[in-house]
Amino acid sequence: MHGTRCFILGAGFSRCCGLPLACELTPVVWRAMARRDPTDRSPNAPLSGPGDFAHPALETDFKAIRLLFPGYVCDPDRGDTWPDFEELITALDEASGYQQSFERITGTEVHNWAAHPKHWLMHHLQERLSELTDAAAEGGLKPIMQFIQALDLLTDSVISFNWDVLVEIAAEQLGVPVHYRDDQGAGLRLAKPHGSLNLVDSPRDKYEETRERAVNVFGLDEELEYDDGGRKHVVLRAQDPRHAWIRQAWAPREFVLLVEPNIRKAYDRRWLELQWVRALDMVRHADEIIVIGFSLPPADLRPRILLQLAPVNRRPSPKLVLVDPKADALAERYRHLVGLDPEPCTETLETWVAHGR
Question: CA 349 to CA 324: how far, in whole Å?
Answer without folding.
Answer: 8
